[in-house]
């Protein structure tokens, strides 16, 4: 038996590429996205009373990981990328059906004639992600404080030392203060969750690049200290 699903909306996210996305939702509160609802589902009446909820379940497609097929076992980053577990004992995007499920904050609900946008926080969603459905989060059944979490018992993330090059600081200083603060917090949170491959030798200096919002960011790790080398807006790159 086969089913066909029509996306109800598209995610416009601060994460423009897969590298840097947190491995679970709500790990980075500053990670925001806009869910644009598509016709014919962009009817205000379909979202009546939704604004009374603080959180949502988002059912989506791993569209950037959906072409390589599935594997019965995967290597979770939480186990160092070396130990295999069954795909159904993981949240890997490489699944028989590339469907994801995330809890996110509902920050705002924008309703107008034939225009519905949901502003979300704490996302782990790539820009352009197709959304299949949303459902309200119900704490009395969805929150289970004494649940067992297998090999992922503790939340990732740790305190880090983070510094910026003088060139990166100049870019931040040109931004409106609130925007600069928000970008700093987003960068810090992403790096605290350490998007680097788990198998890397931490004793070696390593450099990486990622795109957040409209900025390309290059950073390095040396002896456990994170340093942003370069921060460049996409507009500046396009103008060169």
From TrEMBL:
Gene assigned in the entry: tsaA_1
NCBIfam families per the UniProt record, alphabetical: tRNA_TsaA
PANTHER family in the cross-refs: TRNA (ADENINE(37)-N6)-METHYLTRANSFERASE (PTHR12818)
Keyword RNA-binding appears in the UniProt entry: no
Record has DNA damage as a keyword: no
Protein name: Putative tRNA (Adenine(37)-N6)-methyltransferase
Residues covered by the TsaA-like domain: 5-146
Record family assignment: Belongs to the tRNA methyltransferase O family.
């Amino acid at each position: 038996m086969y089913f066909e699903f029509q996306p109800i909306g598209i995610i416009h996210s601060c994460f423009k590429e897969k590298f840097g996305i947190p491995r679970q939702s709500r790990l980075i509160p500053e990670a925001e996205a806009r869910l644009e609802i598509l016709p014919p589902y962009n009817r205000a009446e379909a979202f009546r009373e939704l604004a009374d909820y603080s959180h949502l379940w988002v059912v989506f497609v791993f569209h950037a990981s959906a072409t390589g097929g599935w594997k019965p076992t995967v290597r979770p980053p939480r186990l160092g990328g070396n130990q295999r577990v069954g795909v159904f004992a993981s949240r890997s995007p490489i699944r028989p059906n590339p469907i994801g499920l995330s809890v996110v904050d509902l920050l705002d609900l924008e309703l107008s004639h034939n225009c519905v946008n949901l502003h979300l926080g704490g996302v782990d969603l790539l820009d352009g992600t197709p959304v299949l459905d949303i459902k309200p989060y119900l704490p009395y059944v969805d929150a289970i404080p004494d649940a067992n979490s297998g090999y992922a018992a503790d939340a990732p993330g740790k305190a880090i030392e983070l510094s910026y090059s003088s060139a990166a600081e100049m870019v931040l200083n040109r931004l409106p203060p609130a925007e600069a603060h928000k970008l700093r917090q987003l960068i810090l949170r992403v790096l605290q969750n350490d998007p680097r491959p788990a198998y890397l030798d931490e004793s070696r200096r390593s450099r990486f690049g990622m795109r957040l919002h409209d900025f390309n960011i290059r950073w390095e790790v040396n002896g456990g200290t994170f340093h942003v080398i370069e921060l460049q807006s996409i507009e500046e790159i396009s103008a060169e």
